[in-house]
RNA sequence: GCUGAAGUGGUGGAAUUGGUAGACACGUUGGACUUAAAAUCCAAUGGCCAUUAUGGCCGUGCGGGUUCAAGUCCCGCCUUCAGUACCA
């Protein structure tokens, strides 16, 4: 009987689907375990072999946990809103929903053929109104909440309105855009509805604001910071410019400290946590207020500094060119110069400014500020090294203590007072925060960094010109996109003010449009919709031309960004078909949070940060029991493609084999990897008859070396455009899903980036054939009830131990090797014993579930192997008596003991001492002293 | 610049708390089986030297150090990858 993987895999995939083998429900007898993959965006290209890597790993772990007696939740779905489907719609007019549906069908077929143990009954798509209803719902909750600093949590905005009515905002300690604005209860109650709403927007956790955003003209939409890479859009690589626009924002900054603190409680990789820490960018220091001299309106400039101890070293101030006071304070003599400078720097894009760090530029405003303590005048400059978007957009310049201030001062010949005792600052600034005493600094004289900082803050607070402050780099996230294919906002506008649709009328479904481009007057694509107005009496979406501004109002034209749908999906899996609630209390209390989350590290400062923010918000509302949603997170590495190149000589057009290039002027051209064999030889005939590119090479001349054409190779990201994509369909057809699964794990450590090389798959494929032969030969199933030998049991238990350790540590690659060794050993031992080969199957089954099920059935089991218990390791089988397995004597001073490490130190000492005594007696010498050191090796010291 | 990860044969990669470096697999070479190929099986495979055989020396990016013992620990460099950056 041959190992016919095709029939076996089809059979068991059908069996799992029919019996809903992996359907998860409440089960109080078993502990729960929740394993989740980052759900995919279903792109038109389908899966390549790199995509399933993380899914295979999580599937192995999920299956393992089932064997270990856990009730496992392992769902899957689709993050189906996104740009590619919309771009396709723009080009072809096909509705993105249709494209998405087609792509999902392909994804599902490809996923199914790999044999994942997903609970498909819980599948959902973020673009399904039944799902995005709840995305809209969370948005409304955010709108109806503010952040209370006293309780350090989000609370209903209605509570805040109560306080305003009775006490004004003097005693309110909440996160607000403008913490200088003060009003009494009388003032509040006298405000118009519009004025009140305007104020509340400054407190709401999602709010409408005029903000400087990253606008991508090419894509016609704004982008979040994490959607921009090196100054161009992540998707498509289009340029991005800064632009002021009214946008929905998420007040994630209110959660900055909690997002930072939460990292300490979760088991995520250090590099990922570090990325998030950097992104949040906490720095401690002080805010200092400088009064502008000779200013009729008493203007002040606030700065943030991490070095309040250097306050007496301030010799000038620098404002960002965009700073709001630039125009107000500039003197008439300097007006022209300042205008020119501001205009020039506005022209330069952010990217140019970043690229050009070395050129120092700036201009004097003619105005002076007053030093808070010395009252000396401080010239106010403008310089583009100060960023409007960080801190307050203004700095107090301390040239002796900051290199950029120092360079600026040198360039414009400004004063550089030294406030560091015995430090030479003639060449560069002294930026260390050491124990150097401060001098020329009045009350700070003689103090070191730490003490001076404390004292400076104290003195600033005394004169009410500053206070200790913690600044975060993390900025509020723009939540609007000017696109069609995203969640519509449940928002309509009355007199220009946003109103939420009552939650019970959700979802607000995406309207039909006949054009997916922005409208002629620049509105987002939803501006093309004809039925897109909200009727507040019937609570329905109605035609735009019915808008009467009394009961029927315009709806929001923006849609939500890509990360909206993925920010709470992991909770929805717990109760995905609930129409009445986002999820039931019972469900969330049972499943709690994700135990293991697997996905790519590229989401470090996007999805993985935003979703933590949503979870904390939902925790504040009492909706979820945990304020972190994923206990453990693993970033799977990427599988890279091995591209192949031919070399075309520029003048002759001949293609030279790699070894013949020498110093010829050649151009390297990607060719499809399927025409290249393991020895890097090109199948020229295949290439010439290729359906897509055959024409290009039909008449080409290939110059061979030693009778073959050798291609060049390079490891790159798998991509259609590089022709190095390997399709899992082909692998499954040729070697089977079990081979694919094993090989992807065998390639290397899960977290690592590694190149794919199809030729290596024969190794694991042969292993599966050998495994099959261990159970089945020409006469059929060959397992017997024979007593296992000691060798058999040793192999089995060695394997149990290793595989269990490997899975717990997520080193799946080494356990594949362990299997190979086990099968080789048992084959050599001619083992047919049921007592060994049956439990062994359970070890394999997470990795190669199809073959395991097939053989399991041959043992007479009617239930899936996934119900079987993981075999229990028994160290006794590894401890051999010294008679049969003498302690091996190796070299001059070391013994190696073949036994498990959990045997006690004393036992080893006794055994080795006994052995040494016999040896000594035989050799007629005195026994050496035995010292056992941790590890496998025993030292004998003479 | 800063932060994080990593440098081991021709290749992917093993090596537990410091304990026989190169497991396992690919590839390569030789052999068996075949008219032949594929498939399968067997053997060899870090480098250098030596051989009838046993063997010897060198080897984990580089230079030091600790130790009976270092891929692993410490100090100083180099290189690669990833993230981030006039962050005050």
Distinctive features:
single chain; 942 residues; alpha+beta; seven-stranded mixed beta sheet; six-stranded mixed beta sheet; 36 strands; globular; disordered C terminus; RNA-binding
Protein architecture, described:
By secondary structure, this protein is α+β, with helices and mostly antiparallel strands. Helix content is 33%, strand content 18%. It has 28 helices and 36 strands. The strands form 10 sheets. Strands 10, 11, 12, 13, 14, 15 and 16 form a 7-stranded mixed β-sheet that branches. A hairpin with a 6-residue loop joins strand 13 (362-370) and strand 14 (377-383). Helix 1 (5-19) packs across helix 27 (849-858), helix 21 (728-734) packs across helix 22 (737-746) and helix 22 (737-746) packs across helix 23. The longest helix has 19 residues, at 790-808. The chain is globular, with a radius of gyration of 35 Å. The relative contact order is 0.10. The model is unreliable at 880-906 and 929-942 (pLDDT under 50).
